[in-house]
Amino acid sequence: MGTYYNPGVSVSQGRVGRKLDTFMHDAATDALRPGEHLYACLEFTTHTVAVCVDGFDEFRQMSELLCPYTLHALSEFEHARSV
Question: In this structure, are residues 52 and 37 in contact, taking their beta carbons and an 8 Å threshold?
Fold first, then answer.
């Protein structure tokens, strides 16, 4: 999990990207439009992070944290702003 969008709260509040109505990686990747990237938003007490989980291994690592998450699609332009 090396690429994340900052600030993550912009993704979780819908100012950036679009929310996907699934929690499963396969269904989420099927819902992506060409050029979009899959991000998971995790909300902690002190902050929110939006992590790129395009690959299944990245998604698995994120899900092992056992934190509630939502999945979002970010465009190539928004993904290019990620660090």
Answer: yes
Rounded to 5 degrees, what angle do the CA atoms 32, 12, 26 make? 30
The model carries a pTM of 0.91
Local structure of 20: helix, strand or coil: coil
Rg (CA), the chain: 11
- What is the rounded distance in angstroms from the CA atom of residue 54 to the CA atom of residue 67? 18
Q: How far apart are CA 67 and CA 15, in angstroms?
A: 22
Contacts of 76 (CB under 8 A, 6+ apart): 35, 36, 37
Rounded to whole angstroms, how far apart are CA atoms 75 and 47? Answer: 23
The pLDDT profile of the chain, 83 residues, written as one tens digit per residue, is 567 788 898 999 999 999 999 999 999 999 999 999 999 999 888 999 999 999 999 999 999 988 999 999 999 999 988 87
